[in-house]
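--- STAGE predict ---
source: upstream dedup step, 1 unique chain passed
mode: sequence only
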Amino acid sequence: MLPSLHHLHARSASSAAQPRVSVNEYRARRERVAAALANQLEQRGVAGGVVVIYTSAPVQRMQHDIQRVFRQDPDFLWLTGLGEPHALLAWVRTALGASRWVLLLTESSREEARWHVPRTTREAMERRFLDGRVRPLTTATLRTLLRECRTGPDAPTVCFETERGRALPPALMAALREAGVEQLRAAPWWRAVVQRERVVKSPAELELLRRSANASCAALLAVMRASVVGHRTNEQDVTEAKLAATFRYLVATAGAKRLAFPTIVAAGDNATVLHYHRADDALRPGQLLLVDAGCEMDAYCSDVARTWPVSGRFSAAQRMLYEAVLEIHRVCVEACREGAPGGSALTLESLQRVALAQARDQLTGLRRALRATGARDAVETDEVSVEETTRCFPHAVAHFVGMDTHDTPLVGHDTPIPANAVLAIEPGLYLPRAGGGGGDSDPWQQLRGLGVRVEDMVVVGAPGTPPEVLTDGVPKSVRALQTLLCSEGAARQRAR
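--- STAGE serialize ---
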């Protein structure tokens, strides 16, 4: 799924904790965050009592009395394993410097349990939370916490967030008013603290990401096979919508609770529209098909994209553009290592620079190759400008992947990326028909109407260790793609 270049920067109550993530890992996560919070407070010169509050996601509605399927806030879920609404997690530091975590829950009423799955009980979370600090989410409980953190006559510093369209629980608002605490309007740095810790994936998280990636890869392979057209005269139209439905069905049967993002299935000219979701066209022989898809399994997302010829073989022009993207992809994946030659750090910004430099080189080579075929244009030089490169490659090449498709958005794009972070690497080149130079004056005339993107999930390697590609189960070389697609076409012919 594409990040913007301009932003380079429900689970059931019976299964609240993520599988394969131990209670000890949750405790270790909270300990790391607590140390980072204390360090940030010291740097900011904040002394005395402090309460930092992380809220569960709000319940959203489709209509006035129909709820959407609940999806937990990733920061909150990462800290607690609780996949339910109406809860708070508070890091409490007293005026004397002692600190602890407290989880506050609202348990289901009898009437609510009649209509919805009962929420996890305090007793159950006591066993999972380890710290033994689970309290009811009431005004009285919050009043006690705030009183414990008071420094003399002064109210404690309270960090909480009302952005992102979420309303704080009435009990919290009442307690804050009583304590004389005003709404903190500064940037939510305490969320950035959590997200920086979330960047590095634990072995358990990597296993969950592999499971999600494997489900998406298997579904995408099936979509590839189903997309082949032109081998039977009486075959029904293969449509973008049918292929999107195929992917959705297969990941659901594999255990995915939801898609990671709306599936992009774009045939022909549609592939030049970066976030194409209309999906109402039929595939036609000779077209390229771009599919960008992923699922969410056990709260972890996958994201993979491939582009291939639906007739089984690339045309000469299609192959030229595809291999250019594939080379950009290869170089960027190889760069996904902690540190770099010369000691420079791997960052999202550095990856973008690598990708754009490679894209410019590849486009220059393409223009030279097109001229060698006899193409005429009004451009005097083969050298492609930076501006033209960004028109053909208008999006970011990389983003973090984890509990969100575009994970940890508060982590700066100039932040060094450590080993075991997971990135989506997705270069693309797009030559839309609209806006082209037209006729012989257009240097890209032979490539107009083509869009190519190749995306993989990559685990950043430690120094001296190659990166791991989690989505390598889907072929991407020209030879492997054509072998797969042509064998599928031959099988259909034999079935006539």
